[in-house]
Design goal:
The complex is a heterodimer of chains A (about 260) and B (about 250). Chain A is mainly alpha-helical and about 260 residues long. Helices cover about 80% and strands about 5% of the residues of chain A. In chain A, α8 crosses α11. In chain B, the strands form 2 sheets. Chain B has a 6-stranded mixed beta sheet, with helices on both faces. The mean pLDDT of chain B is about 90. The chains are: A mainly alpha (about 260), B alpha/beta (about 250).
């Protein structure tokens, strides 16, 4: 089944825009820009006197575009596969709902990791060729994006299994980002809030897929080049309730 | 037996108190090598029963053995090919990609899948393997779906309205292919269709279903002896109810 999921994701033209945009950007930078090393193995790309982009700004810009692409493209194949017309074809094969569920998540993780790797390779080669540096923190930050995607996909998966609606899943993913950021930084944002509220926010922080923790992980990697295992574990743990719930609903689903 | 269903019950409710439809099958068996049809008017429960057999719908009670295994186990479907009445393939895939993608779910031996695609496309005269699904006509899509079902050298095929949208030549080719599989590989078949003349050519046993219950089961030979044709047999059971004034 994983081959089927990956085949579908490779054919997803919106998701494919991710590596294509990365390659296109680097080609444009090669032709029209100039690159300089800027300390700490980071770099600055200058297109004209007025437009320059350092590697941390580039990460933020890339991240926003990838988030947008993921939000609109990742639910598509799952919505299609759970329509009765498609599901009755799939589940009449020797395929259990568990196989389907695990293959689907694994397929998404593999493809997003592959696209992140392509993005990192393209930018790594570019920085090496033009500025003679190896931007370790920038590349590590890019390689953390699949973890963020996994958190997004936990929310997508649950919404699609519950509603079979593409729009509902896009909406939830759109809303997840700010909600998760607030929950993740609750103590800093609302220091005066009561203990009960803090406790609720603390629980929700680990039961709603924490894109906030993923984002914080990426920005810490970008600044220090070291991966914080506690944040990575936070992201993974926070995806579990949504994934387990969507798995449960899936096993009860009739087509 | 390739299929043995006992005391199957499934109800669909309009509300907590009102049942909109109930399927009630006491006993249903298909022996190895048998071509069996379930016939009945629209909404009589044919598709519901097929979906229950394949664990796509869950019965309220009852037990089903598919290929001598509990039908809830995925292993029971290893030797079963199913064609639903309504299906959807990824529109951006070509026919070849669809066949390979769906074939890859059942087996890891991709070369076998590719070889079978070549054989099936030859048998069905399919020259549009590299056309995208979205560009195909209804008949072409139906043929592609049949090929998808037949991939994998199964022992038992469950076909829900398999001849929908096919022209006379395509229909004849499909029926010839299925009969050839029967004689060469002793496959079994469970089919539903509204085209009664096809059933007469294809099937050995016929079950009539009405409002979720099997009302009668007979062999084709008995039907032909008593009624002359499957169509007359069918009309004898259903016409008076559908059009009481006739």
């Amino acid at each position: 089944m994983i081959r089927f999921t990956m085949h579908q994701l490779f054919k997803n033209s919106i998701l494919l825009a991710w590596p294509i945009l990365a390659i296109t950007f680097v080609l444009i930078a090669l032709i029209f820009g100039s690159t300089e090393a800027a300390g700490n193995n980071s770099f600055v790309i200058t297109f004209t006197d007025n437009i320059s982009l350092d590697s941390s700004m580039l990460t933020v810009q890339s991240f926003s575009i990838i988030w947008l692409i993921a939000m609109v493209s990742l639910p598509t194949h799952l919505v299609e596969n759970l329509q009765p017309e498609r599901a009755s074809l799939l589940f009449s094969k020797p395929l259990s709902r568990t196989d389907f569920f695990i293959s689907d998540i694994a397929g998404v993780f593999i493809i997003t990791s592959l696209y992140a790797l392509i993005t990192a390779l393209v930018f790594g080669l570019y920085a090496g060729m033009t500025a003679s540096i190896f931007p370790v923190s920038f590349l590590k930050a890019i390689l953390c994006i699949p973890l963020y995607m996994l958190a997004l996909y936990a929310a997508i998966s649950l919404m699609v299994v519950l509603t079979e609606s593409y729009m509902a899943s896009v909406f939830v993913v759109f809303a997840l980002q700010p909600i998760s950021m607030v929950l993740f930084s609750f103590d800093e944002l609302m220091p005066a809030s009561g203990g009960m509220l803090k406790a609720i926010a603390g629980v929700l922080n680990y039961t709603i897929p924490s894109t906030g923790a993923a984002q914080s992980l990426i920005s810490k990697v970008l600044n220090t080049a070291s991966l914080e295992p506690a944040l990575a574990a936070h992201v993974l743990i926070s995806t579990l309730p949504f994934f387990l719930l969507s798995y449960y609903v899936m096993t009860k689903k009739e087509f | 037996m390739v299929l043995e269903a006992t005391n199957i019950s499934k109800s669909f409710s309009k509300s907590r108190k009102r049942t909109a439809f109930q399927l009630q099958i006491e006993q249903f068996q298909i022996p190895k090598g048998s071509f069996t049809a379930i016939l009945g008017p629209n909404g009589s429960g044919k598709t519901t029963f097929l979906k229950i057999i394949l664990d796509l719908l869950f019965p309220d009670k009852g037990h089903i053995e598919l290929m001598e295994k509990n039908h809830k186990l995925k292993e029971s479907r290893e030797q079963v090919g199913y064609l639903p009445e309504n299906f959807s393939f990824p529109e951006s895939f070509t026919v070849r990609q669809v066949l390979e993608a769906f074939g890859s779910i059942s087996t890891n031996r991709m070369q076998d899948v590719r070889d079978q695609i070549t054989i099936l496309s030859g048998a069905f005269g399919v020259k549009y393997l590299d056309e995208k699904i979205k560009n195909l006509s209804k008949g072409m899509k139906q043929t592609s779906a049949l090929m998808q079902t037949l991939l994998g050298n199964h022992k038992f095929y469950i076909l829900d309205e398999p001849l929908n949208g096919l022209d006379a030549v395509q229909k004849k080719t499909v029926m010839h292919y299925l009969l050839q599989l029967k004689s060469q590989q002793n496959i079994s078949l469970l089919i539903t269709t509204h085209i009664l003349s096809d059933i007469e050519k294809l099937c050995d046993d016929i079950h009539l279903i009405k409002r979720g219950e099997i009302i009668t089961s007979s062999s084709k030979l008995d039907i032909l002896n008593e009624f002359g044709s499957v169509e007359d047999y069918y009309l004898n059971h259903f016409e008076s109810e559908t059009f009481p004034d006739l």
